[in-house]
Design goal:
Elements lengths: L15 H18 L11 H8 L3 H13 L3 E4 L3 E4 L38 E2 L12 H15 L13 H15 L5 E5 L1 H13 L5 E6 L3 H9 L3 E8 L2 E2 L1 H10 L2 E6 L13 H14 L3 E4 L24 E6 L11 E5 L1 H13 L6 H12 L2 H29 L3 E3 L7 E6 L3 H10 L2 E2 L1 E2 L12 E4 L5 H16 L2
Parallel strand pairs: 3-14, 5-6, 5-8, 8-9, 9-10
Antiparallel strand pairs: 1-2, 4-11, 6-7, 10-11, 12-13, 13-16, 15-16
Helix pairs in contact: 1-3, 2-3, 4-11, 5-11, 6-7, 12-14, 13-14
Length: 479
């Protein structure tokens, strides 16, 4: 019986795993070259251990690994034998021309967001500034939950979301937004809520009425469900309800998606007359509304209007919101409110996919809200954002005196919609080369026709925003 060997320098002495792995690899090569034939009995583990200069147990670990791969099989009191090849492996595969493998995608994802890290002037994403968070309070909330409930907190798997947070958020919506939800379902951010609604209500070929310009990540969710986003123009009073009425007469629209409080990306607020007209029109047509109230609290002129979903005459409105705009982008907690029958279906979808959310984070947020810390943080953040907004408007007023930019100050939101005297896509590209990231309106338009730049002021100091505007002005004036 032949003794198999490999050069001993190939067998590492640094640890049990690295000692058996080269032996197993050497045996694989011998099997691949035909040096070991099917049915052949290997030398004993004692002989192999002497040949390789390792402990017998190391040899057995290597041989057992090959048994797990189906290359060997162990015979009681006899040793290890080379396995017979599986019949399917003896068939010569059909060879295709040599080229890199590519996955065939069913759909093309939309353009990715620019990363916030590494950007000197991140004006493209109207997300909250995480440096404003009261970290001590949040640490205390996590510690309190773990100290009170221990490992049981990590064992919660509830497709509806953590019961304590659902109770606290329902009470908060009543206090802060005049909304009394029939049912409330927690989601992984508002985007998951939009996706759940799209999968439940839309079928391939359906039409969805969306604001144009509008929130293009939502369009991706509708397209993923096979539906077609159909643009409805927006003016200084919000979505054009008369244009929506014409669309309803031309297409079988299955859903209307709107951002009435601070329209994305223009930040205009839907007027009260249009709110009533929108509710009446869609209710008469039997078309549900998906209302995205993504930054309700950041309203700086008067009191914000109540959501569409707060109306007693709007049983067809599905309400989606998120804590990501109130706490931090990485806190992926959103909520869906609406008809109990519909939300039961959406909760069943979650149970079959995610199963639930981050129970520990949800429990800690519930603790923080119950203690009053959440609303204290929102009030403080709103004051700071109001100061940054005022400084941003001053910077843009200075730029307007030079001629290249126009702006109408909105009532709220964490960004400003501006119009420049040059093509905005080209201006955004040139500004990015100098460290200023902005959102060009062409990205938020179904047909790429909308001019304008969305400039977020929430994550930068007033001084940094002013420097970014000076760079934009210089690029706009450069021919």
């Amino acid at each position: 019986m032949r003794i198999l060997s490999v050069p001993r320098e190939n067998v590492s002495r640094r640890g049990q795993r690295t000692r058996w792995a080269p032996i197993a690899e050497a045996l694989r090569r011998l099997l691949a070259r035909g040096r070991l034939q099917p049915g052949e009995l290997l030398p004993s583990t004692r002989q192999l251990a002497l040949s390789y200069g390792v402990h017998r147990q190391t040899i057995m670990v290597a041989l057992d690994a090959l048994c797990a791969e189906g290359l060997l099989h162990a015979e009681p009191r006899r040793g290890y034998r080379v396995a017979e090849p599986e019949p399917v492996l003896a068939v010569n595969p059909v060879r295709s021309p040599a080229r890199p493998f590519q996955f065939r995608l069913a759909s093309t994802p939309s353009a990715p967001w620019a990363a916030l890290d590494g950007l000197q002037y991140p004006l493209h994403a109207a997300t909250p500034d995480p440096t404003l968070l009261p970290l001590r309070e949040l640490r205390a909330a996590y510690a309190h939950v773990l100290g009170r409930q221990g490992a049981a907190t990590l064992d919660v798997r509830e497709p509806w979301g953590h019961p304590a947070l659902r109770r606290e958020l329902a009470a908060y919506l009543r206090r802060a937004r005049a909304l009394i939800p029939e049912r409330l379902l927690l989601t992984c951010g508002s985007q998951e809520g939009i996706q759940l609604v799209a999968r439940a209500l839309l079928q391939p070929g359906d039409a969805v009425a969306v604001e144009d310009p509008g929130y293009f990540p939502a369009w991706s969710a509708f397209r993923a469900a096979g539906a077609e986003p159909c643009g409805v123009p927006v003016d200084e009073h919000g979505i054009r309800v008369d244009a929506l009425a014409r669309l309803l007469g031309q297409r079988r629209v299955r859903l209307v998606y709107v951002t009435p409080q601070h329209q994305y990306p223009t930040t205009v607020t839907l007027s009260a007359p249009r709110r009533r007209a929108l509710i009446e029109l869609t209710l008469a047509a039997g078309v549900p509304i998906l209302e995205d109230d993504y930054d309700h609290e950041y309203h700086f002129r008067g009191e914000p209007q109540a959501p569409l979903a707060a109306s007693r005459d709007a049983p067809h409105v599905i309400y989606v919101a998120s804590l990501s705009k109130l706490v931090a982008p990485g806190v992926r907690v959103g909520m869906l409110c609406g008809s109990a029958a519909l939300l039961e279906q959406l909760a069943a979808q979650r149970e079959h996919s995610l199963g639930g959310g981050d129970a520990l984070t949800q429990a800690a947020l519930a603790d923080w809200i119950a203690d009053g810390g959440f609303e204290r943080h929102v009030r403080r953040a709103r004051r700071i954002y109001a100061e940054r907004r005022a400084a941003a408007l001053d910077s843009l007023a200075g730029a307007a005196r030079l001629g290249p930019v126009e702006l109408t100050a909105p009532d709220g939101g964490l960004a400003l919609w501006t119009r420049w005297a040059v093509p905005c896509a080209e201006l955004a590209r040139r500004a990015l080369a100098r460290g200023v990231a902005v959102l060009p309106g062409t990205l938020a338009s179904l047909h790429g026709e909308t001019q304008g730049l969305r400039l977020a002021y929430s994550r930068v100091s007033p001084e940094a925003f002013g420097r970014a505007i000076r760079i934009l002005v210089a690029e706009a004036r450069r021919r």
